[in-house]
Amino acid sequence: MNVAVETGGRWQRLKAATSATHDRLDKRIMSAGAFADRARYGRFVQMQHAFHREIDALYSNPQLDALLPDLQGRRRFGHVSQDLTDLGLEPLAETTPWGFGTEADIPTALGWLYVAEGSNLGAAFLIKEAQKLGLSETFGARHLAGAPEGRGLQWRTFTAALDSIEIDEAEEARVIAGAEAAFTRVRALADQVFS
Ligand code: HEM
């Protein structure tokens, strides 16, 4: 078992604070039949694309790079953009002003990145659904692929870093608020594409 699980570290607190929001999002996406056919799946990819577009600048943030292992390698905007191209779809129109720029409040950004990284863990299940539609890690479902070193290891190195970053209580509250905001944003995008 992960040490953070035993000691109830920051990641565990973050997970506990957001798990109900995650479950509602999961149910919203699955009840919309996101994996029922390619047309519905395409809408899911448009949602994912919009989310990753809004956080993409974080992956080039030097302060975050110093705190998190292999930040560049975790970037998935290129993959999800390619998935849209594979499916012959256009991105959603950009809603401005939205998304992160080159500067960000670091605790808030950590919360958003937690949501993006965690979604790649759940993607182990989602890629199996996408495969039933004839899609794969090399066509249409690239952004759901695991890291070369494995999803589990990639996730453990992220959560270990999250647990070891020195921040105070007020900053940790901003991490949690950032994660909640990210889930809220993805939920709004899900409502938009599946309305
Ligand atoms: C229908 C869609 C989804 C399903 C079925 C799903 C399912 C899952 C599952 C099974 C896990 C746990 C994986 C494990 O512990 O091995 C997980 C984790 C997670 N998912 Fe999802 N997910 C979905 C969508 C999303 C989306 C759209 C996001 C955010 C953009 C997201 C964010 C997360 C996060 C942050 C975690 C990590 C929780 C933690 O352990 O701290 N999920 N998901």
TrEMBL record:
Superkingdom per UniProt: Bacteria
Record-linked InterPro entries: Haem_Oase-like, Haem_Oase-like_multi-hlx
Gene3D superfamilies in alphabetical order: Heme oxygenase-like (1.20.910.10)
Record GO terms (molecular function): heme oxygenase (decyclizing) activity
A Pfam family it matches: Heme_oxygenase
Signal sequence, renumbered to the chain: none
An annotated GO BP: heme oxidation
Entry coiled-coil feature ranges: none
Protein's UniProt name: Heme oxygenase
Organism: Terrihabitans soli
Lineage of origin: Bacteria, Pseudomonadati, Pseudomonadota, Alphaproteobacteria, Hyphomicrobiales
Gene: hemO
